[in-house]
Amino acid sequence: MLPGALFAVEVIGVGHQVSDEFPLGVLTGELTVAPLEKMIAETVCRLTAWWPSRSPAQVVDQLGATRLPGADGSFDVGRPWMVAFAAGVSKRAALERLRVRLGVGAEATLAVGR
Questions:
Q1: Staple 54 to which of 58, 97, 100, 108, CB 3.0 to 4.6 Å?
Q2: pLDDT tens digits for range 26-48
Q3: CA-to-CA distance for 110 and 28, rounded, in angstroms?
């Protein structure tokens, strides 16, 4: 579906396992090259697909209609990648839970990020 794409799975608190070398600055933490089969053999919290030499629009064209059961995803508007994560698990969802727990009104909440 994405010929030549690079894949990464997050290893919480450490970095990422990657299918091959990623461009510098794209991912954070320690990067360990591993076979894709090993990377997806267990449940992961986040899967990133990077499609080098393509545009963000091309990634959306290829994956925009794809649905992974139990997962949500997001596309980057400036980089050719897609991130999939467990449904309901996102920075937005975590901020909303924290906002409610702390009693902060929605009108007083602003989140900005990438």
A1: 58
A2: 898 999 999 989 998 888 888 99
A3: 25
Mean pLDDT of the chain: 88
CATH of the domain at 45: 3.30.1240
Global pTM value:
0.75
Q: What is the DSSP string of 51-71?
A: -TTS-HHHHHHHHTT---TTE
What gap in Å lies between CA 60 and CA 66, rounded to an integer?
9
On whether the CB atoms of residues 82 and 8 are closer than 8 A, the answer is no
Residue 48 lies in a domain: yes
Q: What's the rounded Cα separation, in Å, for the pair 99 and 28?
A: 27
Buried b vs exposed e over 67-81: b needs ≥16 C-beta within 10 Å? eeeeebbebeeebbb
Domain count, the chain: 1
Pairwise pLDDT comparison (89 vs 83), residue with the higher score: 83
Q: Which domain holds residue 43?
A: 6-88
Angle at 54 between CA 80 and CA 56, to 5 degrees: 35
